[in-house]
Amino acid sequence: FPPDSYKIFRADRSRKTHPWDPKNPKKYRQNGGGVLIAHRLDIELESTRVSCVSSLAEILTLNFKLSTGKKINISTFYRVGNLGIENFESVKTHLTSLAGKKKLDKHILIGDLNFPEISWPDHSTSVEVHKKFVDLLMLDLNHSQLINKPTHKNGNTLDLLFTNIPEQIEDVTVMGYKEACSSDHFGIKFTLKVNVAPKRMPKRLMYNFKKADWRNLNFDLKKIDWDKIIGMHDPFSSWEVFKKILFKLCDNHIPKKSFRYQFQPPWFDSDCAKVLHEKEKWRARANSPGGTVEDYNKFRQLRSDYKKVMDEKMRLNVQDETDPALVSKKFWKHVKSKTKSTRIPETVHYQGQYRTKPSDQADLFNAYFCDQFSDKSKYDIDIDMGADRSFLDLEFHILDVMLLLKNVNPNKAAGPDGIHGMILKNCASSLAKPLTLLFNNHSFQGPSQTTGNLLLSFLCINKMI
Fold first, then answer.
1. What does the CA dihedral 336, 342, 345, 346 come to, rounded to 10 degrees?
2. Mean pLDDT, the chain, as a whole number?
3. Which is nearest to 35 in space by CA: 64, 3, 13, 7?
4. What's the longest Cα–Cα distance across the chain?
5. Pair 113, 76: CB distance under 8 Å
6. Is the pTM of this model over 0.85?
7. How many other C-beta atoms lie within 10 A of the C-beta of residue 93?
8. How far, in Å, CA of 398 to CA of 64, rounded?
9. What is the SS3 assignment for 217?
10. Residues near 239 by Cβ (< 8 Å), separated by ≥ 6?
């Protein structure tokens, strides 16, 4: 469970829940074990852990509050098969205490309860501890048990699902052997009928370069005494100060646009929203019981219009018409125009394998790329940059740096420094001097671990052309 996508609650096994018995070392493992509940973070859900009254049972209970205000409690429980009455009393104390606080109004309990002697669905057994658990859950707490198939490779039904809201549980399925994970138990999956809304993503801000005030931004950049600022710091500190000043001025002269959704493209504006709203209106009309052929044709036309509007907005957002390196044609049209080829090859071959179907060709390409990048490189080259005296003679000139900046391709993504190519290109005359000072300051002091990032930035600029 990735921690940035799931919220995880754990109840690890301890000496309190399973005290070590040196006289019977095979009773249960001394270390390891525990129970866990995780839920996704991208849904509107409040989850809190319900404190366990007794610590002598390996049980975990969470209280989930939905966006509608309704609450559901979910518990997971692992019972070592040969634990006796004391373990049962701990579970009983925990569940009855929840019931007394009216926290078992809607409850689901799932886990490995190790009841091999119980026959389901009639829940008959001759084992006293098993019978006490069944009476507690099904008679005292009015729960139903929904698993009636073996959940272990030996044919036993050990993993059970108890709930007092069986009408909200659907599609209960016992998965196949090792289908869920590598275990001798079978996984259980089910659907809980609740309305859960997706969590609203925070708005994100991006520069709106269409409304940037490049003239005043360049004016303010040229007013700064870069000789004094860069001269009083080492190259690494100067680089950080330079970026801080640049971003502050960019915030002053380049407005930002906010986007409601995380994956909403930056070119989605009011024009796109208007066409989308009209398209969805006619979609609903065409799919309604009274929808006609004319309604469907209208919807198809609006769907086509929406795609055209989105393509044009995207093109205007990411393409610079003045960029000589811009490839305006689609990929295969561009390939055909350069190679004079009239079609995509019908047969692709690699390592003696020939494929004609698109899906098989894709698999062949995957195999090729896997072969290129899967093996770890075995380079053992000792590079001593200090012995290279020619490095100290390296000198950068303002004009050369400015020409590089003017030829930057603004359609490419920003590098690790976060400075967008649009800023580098439109502020080339203003940024040439501070960048030249930074590069020369670095080369004057010689190569080092802390200042190597500055030359890397110069290489990134050169690569963006």
1. 150
2. 80
3. 13
4. 92
5. no
6. no
7. 15
8. 62
9. helix
10. 438, 453, 454, 457
